[in-house]
Amino acid sequence: MILFHLMGGTLRFNELRRKLPSVTQRMMTKQLRELEESGLVSRTVFPVVPPRVDYALTPLGETLKPVIKALAAWGEENVFCLPEGRYLRDVSAVSGAPAAAVEA
């Protein structure tokens, strides 16, 4: 999800937090560090008070855009968010296969 939101351009840490409200600050920091270590995300620290940190996709991260867009399109078509949770589309209605309740 972090990579998806960074596809729109550079974001500060708190801007990312607002886009992913269910993610804890600790988990967000951990994931951003992993993405930075993998070379997918760049982290720029500005020496100002209060501290300002920007995150952006690296050129390597940019190469994932087509994959992320394809996953987003699949999710839009097949995942439904209801008050009681998220669910996958009933594939039996499309393929004739037996129905299975699958919770995402």
Characterize the structure shown:
It is a single chain. The protein is of the alpha+beta class. The chain has a domain of 62 residues: Orthogonal Bundle (Arc Repressor Mutant, subunit A), CATH 1.10.10.10. It is built from 6 helices and 5 strands, in the order αβααββααββα. Strands 1-3-2 form a 3-stranded antiparallel sheet. A two-stranded antiparallel sheet has the order 4-5.
Give a quick summary of the entry.
The protein is α+β, with helices and mostly antiparallel strands. Helix content is 45%, strand content 21%.
**pLDDT averaged over residues:** 86
What is the 3D shape?
Answer: globular
User: If helices are DSSP runs of H or I spanning 4 or more residues, what is the number of helices?
Assistant: 6
- CATH architecture call of the domain at 2-63: Orthogonal Bundle
Question: Could you name the key traits of this structure?
Answer:
single chain; 104 residues; alpha+beta; Arc Repressor Mutant, subunit A; three-stranded antiparallel sheet; two-stranded antiparallel ribbon; 6 helices
Secondary structure layout plus pairing:
Blueprint: H1 2-6, E1 11-12, H2 13-19, H3 25-37, E2 41-46, E3 52-57, H4 59-62, H5 65-78, E4 79-82, E5 85-88, H6 92-95
Antiparallel strand pairs: 1-3, 2-3, 4-5
